[in-house]
Amino acid sequence: MQGIWLISYVVLWLIVLVLVWLLITMLRLMGQLHERLGPAGAAVTSNGPDLGERLPDLMEAHKIVDQALLGFPKSRDSLLVFVAPSCPSCEELIKSLIPFSRREKELEVIMVSSASRPEENNHFASLVAKSGVALVASEALTKAAKVNGTPFAVWLDRNGTVHAKGIVNHSEHLESLKHARQSGFASLEAAHEGQ
């Protein structure tokens, strides 16, 4: 009987060593994959207002009536999130946007709908009701800001200057815009290239 227990003991230790080796190999492969993929930030495109451009100047140039929510200077930064009724991912983004806006006390979150008819905005209004996220319907602002695809976000400082922008589909993209604003780089990718 002692021989069987000794053999089983040795076999179990061999299995443990093989599992440890597999775990180390898998962690190494995950690290390589993480290095290749890099950070998943908001996709910065040529769409949207230029970095450094001021929203008040843009609105004035396009003769957009200054709405109370879009008046500058403000006491805190603003995040404009452009949405459209025909955009299926906009509704999913709102689920991430509401908790994000509650966490970011020093940020005013404003959704800008490109819908031209008021009834098209009722759906967005019902989603953000009592959430602290404001809703502005302005097809003119969407066009003036050169936003061709939604959801698209623009991070503005207290004076209305664009500091970060990009296509946003989930909370990680929103966080990447916050990081871009804090770091002074236009995007998360630019921050990593600058290091």
Put the structure in a nutshell:
The protein has 195 residues and is α/β, with parallel strands linked by helices.
Report on this model:
This protein is an alpha/beta fold and 195 residues long. It folds into two domains: 1-37; 55-194, Glutaredoxin (3-Layer(aba) Sandwich), CATH 3.40.30. It contains seven helices and five strands. It has a five-stranded mixed sheet with strand order 3-2-1-4-5.
Within CATH, the superfamily of the largest domain carries the name Glutaredoxin
List the strand order in the largest sheet: 3-2-1-4-5
General shape: elongated
**Proportion of residues in β-strands:** 5-15%
CATH topology value of the largest domain: Glutaredoxin
Report the CATH C-level class of the largest domain.
Alpha Beta
Q: Describe the biggest sheet?
A: 5 strands, mixed
Calculate Rg over CA atoms: 24 Å
Poorly predicted spans? none
Could you say what the CATH architecture of the largest domain is? Answer: 3-Layer(aba) Sandwich
Strands, count:
5
Share of helix among residues?
Answer: 40-55%
Separation, N- and C-terminal Cα atoms? 63 Å
| Quaternary class | single chain
- Overall pLDDT confidence: 82
Number of helices: 7
Helix/strand/pairing category: alpha/beta
